[in-house]
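User: My instructor asked us to take a sequence, write out its structure as tokens, and then describe one feature of it. I'm not sure where to start. Here is the sequence I was given:
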Amino acid sequence: MAGIRRKARELALQVLYQMEITGEPAPTGPESFWGHFPSRPAARDFAQRLIAGTTARRDEIDGFIENAVEHWKLERLSKVDLIILRLATYELLFCPDIPMNVSIDEAIEVGNRYGSDDSPAFINGVLDQVAHANGLKETGKIKESERPEP
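Assistant: Let's start with the prediction itself. The structure tokens for your sequence are:
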């Protein structure tokens, strides 16, 4: 299952990157993408879950990331790193079925493949701060009562 989910995370990154660059809204972005990059149904389903959740909670997610990156504005971050951080932050805070360590490790791996040489360490540091600030470091999961409201 990890292989399918990794592929899904990569597809989600590519769709969100395309949407970020073109300004194309979420409802039409993925459909045009799937026509050019076919994928297995399980990967597509998980990617669509990540895309929809990350898009719907983007402002909230960006707030968590901004709090974790001291002395940086989101506009200054690499688009690839920012999108990976958004996806992983969505997983950390809003996907209780995915363990914290899996979300962080997968984000680092995707950053290693698609980001710069500095991306893996940067992504790890920011996600560690997001996890710590939201009480995930102590338990490995955020308590339902502490989960941000939808």
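For the description part of your assignment, you could build on this observation: The radius of gyration is 14 Å. Try explaining in your own words what that tells you about the chain.
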